[in-house]
Write a structure and sequence with these properties.
The protein is an all-alpha fold. It has one domain: Up-down Bundle (Growth Hormone, Chain: A), CATH 1.20.1250.20. Helices cover 75% and strands 2% of the residues. Strands 1-2 form a two-stranded antiparallel sheet. The two termini are 15 Å apart.
Length: 486
């Protein structure tokens, strides 16, 4: 058993790197399933009606309402010699990989099927099973950021490695996907998009799934868990008394409504400028600046607390979104104008999101510590599950709305020589630009509202950490005495 030593790191760089690369593997798999690519995949590649895809996205959000919290409580009830989180990280990578191939291989596996109803059924089954397995992997993975060490500096290191490496690997996944899509559509590579997505699924399963397995192999849980298994009812009762977490969850819900951004980003490059890989060029400055932001995060955190940084995040994005929308108001299809405007938008988003992604995970960890001090129980599973659940359900709803909006703004598809070709109205391109650059940033601003009541900062947070450190030392001493007697 370990005692708490605030002068050292319990997490070595090798373990933090393994966790970071595992996060990268997860990102490599999930990047093609982001709302924009998934909507485009089902409508343009699988050839399914936008209404059917929209309804499936909505239904998957309702499925999350049952799925995520229950899985979180199952994780919290797990007790093994490896801990409660690590066992799930050991067993989930293989089924996660298999289901990824089945999801993206749908158009190829169903190529001989003419029934739209059968294809829609395949979409439902493959995606919902994939989402179920993903949740069993994602909840304990996120929970490990708080269980890996009792020390804030260790957690920050692990989260920073995770965010940094996953961003790079996600970029590689996106580069591969968009490059292969353009190679197919421009005739450089004589294969259809069905084959492209099947190949992406196989690569994601082997490479991404392999990296993700590192989390179960190399990471350890060091925060002492109570021996008693909390019931599902107890887990949720504790959660309802965790006001700081509920405020973060509410903010995440409101921010996720800005998921319109991901959908219309994809359709902008696919159908307005008709060059998917142009997004890679636009992302380069933002990616570079985002990476350059990491060394400054400790200094930034010394200057501002997490609540202040969240507010900066909200106001920076909305101001830049308004500026960029009007800068490209009449030239959104002109690459010479759109590229620098979108580069500016991506630079700002990359900077504030780099900081936000780290501090949001830290803040959820702080709320878990807060409830441990109040109740003696840690609820990583339910806390991260509920946080991701509300974000996912709101994201699913926004994706469903965005997909349903496509025919309303005049974008539909028809089959020509075996390929899905876009049919657009007179103002379709302008509406895509508006839903890409302006509307998501305005909606995202709603996420700032709950933080006016968030107060887990400053001296209050420092006192909680100090009291927990003392309590854990006492727990370790008591358990050591019991072991000596037996």
């Amino acid at each position: 058993m370990m005692s708490i030593d605030t002068e050292k790191h319990y997490v070595r760089y090798s373990e933090a790197l393994a966790y970071g690369f595992a996060a990268g593997g997860k990102s490599f798999v999930t990047t093609p399933t982001q709302s924009g690519y998934l909507s485009l995949f089902f409508t343009k590649v699988f050839g399914l009606p936008a209404g059917a895809v929209s309804f499936m996205m909505l239904l998957s959000g309702l499925w999350d309402a049952v799925n995520d919290p229950l899985i979180g409580s199952v994780v919290d009830k797990t007790r093994t010699g490896y801990g409660k989180l690590r066992p799930w990280l050991i067993v989930t990578p293989l089924p996660f990989a298999v289901l990824t191939v089945l999801l993206f291989g749908g158009p190829s596996f169903m190529s001989g099927v003419n029934s739209v109803g059968v294809k829609i059924a395949y979409m439902y089954v493959s995606y919902i099973l994939w989402e179920l397995c993903f949740t069993f992997a994602d909840v304990p993975f996120n929970g490990m950021t708080t269980a890996v060490s009792p020390l804030p500096q260790d957690r920050t290191r692990v989260i920073s490695f995770s965010t940094f490496i996953s961003g790079i690997v996600a970029g590689a996944s996106q580069t591969l996907l968009l490059s292969l899509m353009d190679a197919s559509e421009k005739g450089v590579w004589n294969v259809g998009l069905k084959t492209v997505f099947l190949l992406i699924g196989v690569i994601a399963a082997l490479f991404g799934g392999g990296l993700f397995s590192l989390a179960g192999i190399f990471t350890k849980e060091r925060v002492v868990q109570s021996a008693r298994q909390p019931s599902i009812r107890e887990s949720f009762r504790v959660l309802l008394h965790n006001k700081p977490l509920l405020l973060i969850v509410l903010s995440n819900m409101l921010m996720s409504a800005g998921g319109l951004y991901n959908v219309f980003t994809t359709y902008y490059f696919a159908e307005v400028v008709q060059l998917n890989s142009l997004k890679l060029l636009i992302d380069i400055p933002g990616g570079a600046v985002g990476i350059a932001t990491y060394p400054f995060i400790p200094a930034i955190k010394r200057r501002f607390d997490n609540k202040q940084l969240m507010m900066i995040h909200f106001f920076s994005k909305v101001a830049t979104g308004v500026l960029c929308f009007f800068a490209g108001f009449r030239h959104y299809a002109n690459k010479a104008v759109a590229v620098p405007v979108l580069m500016l938008l991506n630079i700002v988003i990359s900077i504030v999101n780099t900081v936000k992604n780290i501090i949001t995970t830290e803040m959820i960890g702080d709320t878990i510590d807060y409830m441990e001090l109040k109740t003696g129980e840690r609820n990583e599973g339910v806390s991260f599950a509920v946080s991701s659940f509300f974000s996912k359900i709101t994201g699913s709803v926004s994706t469903a709305i965005a997909t349903a909006v496509l025919p309303v703004i005049g974008l539909t598809y028809r089959t020509v020589n075996g390929r899905q070709v876009a049919v657009k109205g007179e103002k379709t391109d302008f509406y895509i630009w508006m839903f890409y650059v302006l509307i998501p940033q305005l909606v995202n601003m709603l996420g700032a509202i709950p933080f006016f009541w968030y107060n887990l900062t400053g001296k209050r947070l420092a006192d909680i950490r100090e009291q927990l450190a003392q309590r854990r030392e006492m727990m370790v001493a008591e358990m050591s005495e019991m072991e000596e007697k037996t």
